[in-house]
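Help needed: design a sequence for this.
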């Protein structure tokens, strides 16, 4: 009987310990899956926004070149690219043709006004296109900045979420160790209590008993008549 009770206490401790370990294992596995999903989502977002970030980098560099922040050579190269571009060519060709057609219709084809208008037209178009291009590049750079900021915010949030999941993992493992210790402590305590009672009453003859109590009998004796 005593062996059965002791065995039951030990088995109870084993079952409780194993249950605590399984529960902790499930929590750790769930946290690992959460970490993997957080990273997957962040990688997907970063991949989606990466073209905008890269375009913003290009836009900022070209804007700096055009504005002279990268030096006179880079600025001249940027202006020459606009002057040699299809947009400048089309605008100047159409504009000059319009000036000449108007002068021809009014009989002032060789007049000073016509020559002056032609001389001023190309610089005006170039200046206008430079300003337009600078504004366009600024918008591109701003879009890239916003995309980079969104990636940064997502990265910080992902890091915080992963940190929380790892904290949950730590709490689960710590809780499992504590539960295991408590389970075995309770089991050993139960066995110790029974053993102490058995030693205390071993050899004692209760009222109504025909012989002294054995160690096993003493373990379950609660006082009074036997």
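Sure. Designed sequence:
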């Amino acid at each position: 009987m005593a062996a059965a009770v002791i065995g039951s206490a030990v088995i109870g401790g084993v079952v409780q310990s194993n249950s605590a370990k399984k529960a902790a294992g499930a929590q750790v596995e769930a946290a690992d899956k959460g970490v993997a999903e957080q990273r997957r989502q962040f990688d997907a977002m970063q991949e989606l926004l990466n073209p905008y970030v890269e375009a913003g980098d290009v836009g900022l560099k070209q804007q700096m070149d055009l504005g002279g922040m990268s030096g006179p050579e880079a600025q001249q190269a940027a202006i020459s690219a606009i002057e040699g571009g299809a947009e400048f060519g089309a605008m100047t060709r159409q504009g000059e043709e319009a000036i000449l057609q108007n002068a021809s219709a009014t009989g002032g084809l060789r007049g000073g006004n016509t020559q002056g208008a032609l001389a001023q037209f190309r610089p005006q178009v170039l200046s206008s296109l430079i300003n337009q291009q600078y504004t366009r590049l600024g918008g591109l750079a701003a879009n890239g900045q916003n995309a980079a900021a969104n990636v940064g915010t997502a990265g910080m949030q992902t890091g915080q979420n992963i940190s929380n999941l790892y904290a949950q993992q730590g709490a689960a493992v710590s809780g499992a160790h504590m539960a295991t210790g408590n389970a075995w402590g309770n089991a050993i305590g139960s066995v110790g209590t029974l053993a102490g009672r058995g030693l205390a009453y071993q050899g004692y003859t209760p009222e109504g008993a025909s012989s002294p109590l054995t160690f096993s009998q003493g373990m379950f004796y609660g006082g009074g008549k036997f």
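Residues 112-201 form the longest helix (90 residues).
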